[in-house]
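Q: Got a minute? One more chain.
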Amino acid sequence: EVAIYYNGKVYVAWQDYLGGTSSPPDILFTASSDDGATFNGGTAGNAGTPKDLSSTNIASPDTNDSFHPQVAAAGGKAYVVWDDVSGGNREIFYRNSTDVGVTFGPTLSSSATVLSTSGGNNEVEPQIGTNSDGSKVFVTWNENTSDDIKFKRSTNSGVTFTAIQDIDTAGTDTLPALDSLGDNVYIAWKD
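A: Always. Here it is, folded:
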């Protein structure tokens, strides 16, 4: 997943099998502030070391499966969500950066923020968006055990989020998509 913000900022998040294909994937992140010429303090041709958002240390990969990273960016802020196996169920995890990906909240030495509360359901396929200055963050996902579409929003640059809202609970709902323009958010899904 790639997010590009003006003034030369490029953000990339992906899932990677750090311990080989038989190990669970982690979510990695890298950023550039020079139109993609260099990433994470590297040089041209040497990307630098990415940040592992799903583990506390890139040298020690996470033992849980982490999938479907999505990134949104605005104003030097980057927001990343993914689904991660936690306690036997998949949950929606979140981290944010306000300094072009140099540091993240919660700090990488602690666990990521969990946005979903599954109650035994699997929360998957997250999508994320933000407004033009990054002050509002929007997240939607599929609760695939019950096939519902869920939604949360933040109005303080991703520091806190509203309670989970049900967008659609009828039928078999999958594959949510999200886009935003200004303060408006648009969500579509397969029913």
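A: The CA atoms of residues 73 and 135 lie 10 Å apart.
Q: Perfect, thanks.
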